[in-house]
Structure prediction request, 410 residues.
Amino acid sequence: MRTGFQADRNHAPCGSHLPFPRFPIFCTLRRIDTPKLRAVYSVRDQPAMTSSPSSIIASGKALNGSLLPRFIRWLRVMGYAKSTNRFYISSIRLLLEYLDELPATQVTHLEIRDFLASVAERGVKPATIWRCLCGLRCFFDFLNMGGLINWSPPRSVRLRRLKKTVPPVLNEKQVRELLAATRSMHERAMIEIIYGSGARAGEIRNMRVEDVDLVARRIRVLGKCGYRYVLFPRAVVGCLRRYIGERKNGYLFTSHHLCRRLHVFQGPNGAWRSYFYKYDPVVKRSLRAYWYLPKEKAQTQEQALRKLKRIIPKTTRDLPVGHRPLGTTTVRYIVMRVGLRVGVRVNPQILRHTFATHLLDHGADIRMIQKMLGHISLKTTQAYTHVSMGQVQKVLEKCHPRNLRVHGIR
Prediction:
């Protein structure tokens, strides 16, 4: 049985002295101990193929089924974001369903191309197809590293470059109208923080009260690439101080609603049954709890529902403030709801674009904007230079010879 680097040495490309010279991502793996590598990437000998088609199909499906859990463990080692892991895993599951009885070790670039074509037929966006291809490349690189294949078929598939789109932004008047349309301190503080700091929606969810520094006007947040600090202007301090109140810890933006609406069901014997979700501080999530009421204690559904609300623990109705963060789409929903009141199409990402564009319009350096947004590459921040037409207009008014003559300079 060949495991780990043994298979790599036997199947390395001609003229190469390293196991995987083509993929720089694998260079970091050489720092790991060999026993750990063999524990993660050891591949057991598969049963020999017989002439029976049923045994070939069974062995192919069994091999594909055993590769997915190993790939999931490898994604944890790589430390990708949770959303990236979910998308990669779902892409590989679709691929294995598409391959059916064909083993993943026998896939060529033709099967990869046909699979991407089937994904495109579902009407998804080109960016989704690109992300799916990235997931396939990561999966087959993992197989290549384990010695199951000698090359990565998705690396031979090329897609058209994505069209660069100009992100939509709001003008300063629309931002003032958006702030005036808020109806609670919760909405006002959230929009002030997003527009004032340019934080991402995921960073807004994970903000904690103990990480807010009102004196230095900064918040420590957990972003895509780890912890970083976001700054906010002086005008946001008063709003944020009123929203925090007397709280000393917990999540900054919290939810105060029930986990689900209460429903009461009557069984065949006339008894009333229901369930509710009780927050457990140990596991930091809500667990389902069942409820039963005999028929003699309640004759109607209204009476049973009234008794259920009395029995529900207080921690379920009024969860301790700061113990549960907002949902993944709650931040987006709150911002969009406020925008609908003034007829503006807006979401947290648009507010983030607006933050960067307005800074650029008022003369901020693009490298400072890169630092505030948390971008690793300056190319990502340079997309806002195509949006900031106000800055272009100022340069045109200042430097064009026709404008200089009108103002009497020449």
Remarks:
- Residues 172-255+325-395 form a domain with the hpI Integrase; Chain A fold (CATH 1.10.443.10).
- The chain has three domains: 5-156, 172-255+325-395, 265-317.
- The radius of gyration is 28 Å.
- Residues 53-78 form the longest helix (26 residues).
